[in-house]
Amino acid sequence: MRTGEPVATAAGPVKLHQPHARNDGTPLNPDWFDAAEVNLSAAERRAATIGTRRTVKKQWQAAWLVKAIQCIDLTTLAGDDTPGRVERLCAKARHPLRDDLVEALGLTGRRLTTGAVCVYPSMVRTAVKALDGSGIPVASVATGFPAGLTPFEQRLAEIRYAVAEGAQEIDIVITRAHVLTGNWQALYDETRLMREACGAAHMKAILATGELKTLTNVYRASMVTMMAGSDFIKTSTGMEGVNATLPVSLVMVRAIRDYLALSGLRVGFKPAGGIRAAKDALTWLFLMKEELGRDWLEPDLFRFGASGLLTDIERQIEHFVTGRYSSADRHGMA
Ligand SMILES: O=C[C@H](O)COP(=O)(O)O
Questions:
Q1: What pLDDT does residue 3 have?
Q2: Which of 147, 180, 259, 284 has the highest local Cβ count within 10 Å?
């Protein structure tokens, strides 16, 4: 490649994070989802074509990968998280690519960061301090993540705590039982109260789709949590047996499209859990572009929840720039 040539134009220019208007929700409208039935094999067939319909190579691929970096919620959610690990993660979020790669991509002097850093509530303060002045928001999981089965008042208190510590985004988990028993009113009411507890912080609702049994349940839960005011809907905690998949993502983005058509309100999407390959990240970006359009390729409406994805993206960009792969352990994360 010719070095120094700006690549970040194929999927659009590198833009500053611009939060979109919030989703204030609507009343619970069962008419919007009661009759919905999702055909599993049709969803699987359509999902299987997404990665095959478009191939991007060389500088175009590098540009899409830069876009993917900007949309990552760089995550650590492990029992052995330490302040030191969170600080290293934040340093990586500020500076996701090595200087020589940034220069070769022609992006020197441009702001290139991940979309956010995502941590447990007790790590929010450390992350906020480490990201000071960077403009990178801290996202906190809350509400008894990952199972979401602590007493409800404690779940709300956890949201308030994370917000008070400085989190600008809260990733809540829903009560799966409400979906599995079809108690949409309870799901709506709980999610509304969580949204209230978030205050000015944007709320992402984690559906834990691997535990919802059917794609029809995924569609209905998506609609109800959007009506309750979720700013994003998110596939998974990363801790379920099955996490982000393309068929589930397709159903959720179609729900976002339907909700937009019915309410006029835009909701973001966050696939999370098990997304580690740069190639897979590209497939998700293509899905967003095809199903929802260009606006859903920006961090205000699209995020990857991922702990390891950046490692592979950096390797692929290094390969594009130098023609060689280095081993993954050269791209330390946390
Ligand atoms: O929300 C983010 C997920 O927990 C990340 O999952 P991952 O570690 O499989 O990338």
A1: 44
A2: 259
